[in-house]
Design a protein that fits this description.
eight-stranded mixed sheet, 8 strands, 28% helix, 196 residues, alpha+beta, 5 helices
Length: 196
């Protein structure tokens, strides 16, 4: 593992450093369609929390024709308690990025990705909910790059039994419920979400 981006002067890389600080770990990974970096940032959005963000998925999407017509594309992110940041978790995150490339499409807010497996470190979280990166400043969500706008999608781990409740809600109502519940979504062993 290294601690610097391949292209530290890139628009996305500078955006990440501005919002998250310097990465403590950057790995080069091969996914379907090319190479990406997975960057890890320590103590954001809080003490002991690790934020993982891909760098390069948006370039693959644009090259392979599943970016938006005006160059819009996505990077993926997850937040987790640092105690769960292991080689197995990193391998899992890369497998999600690989699936993203193989599916050859951008993800929609409110979409569920059923992985058919339990997320490493958790006991029963097996679905990822695609959500805006609301844990950070609003300006973190989107970055203008020379190739087009790039958005960062947060992958929020859920239990299969939580999916039905969330799917029945409008996205705004779900956001309000999250604000009220204040779940520690970075805790892969968090209590189940209970919606009224």
């Amino acid at each position: 593992m290294k601690t610097r981006f391949r292209n530290p002067a890139g628009s996305l890389e500078q955006h990440l450093v501005r919002h998250l600080g310097e990465p403590f770990a950057v790995t080069d990974e091969r996914v379907s369609g090319g190479r990406i970096e997975v960057s890890g940032f320590r103590d954001v959005p809080g003490d002991g929390i690790v934020t993982l963000v891909t760098v390069g998925l948006s370039d693959i999407a644009r090259r392979r024709g599943f970016g938006g017509i005006h160059g819009q594309a996505q990077e993926l992110s997850m937040v987790l308690d640092g105690t769960y940041f292991t080689e197995d978790f990193l391998t899992f995150f890369v497998s999600v990025a690989t699936k993203y490339c193989r599916d050859h499409r951008q993800l929609a807010w409110g979409e569920f990705l059923d992985l058919g497996m339990v997320i490493p470190g958790s006991l029963d979280l097996g679905v990822l909910f695609v959500w805006p990166v609301a844990l950070f400043d609003d300006s973190f969500q989107f970055v203008a790059t020379p190739a087009g706008e790039t958005s960062v999608a947060l992958l929020f781990p859920m239990r299969r039994d939580e999916v039905a409740s969330v799917a029945a809600m409008e996205l705004e109502a779900f956001g309000d419920a999250l604000d009220a519940l204040q779940p520690e979504i970075w805790d892969l062993r968090r209590p189940s979400l209970k919606f009224a």
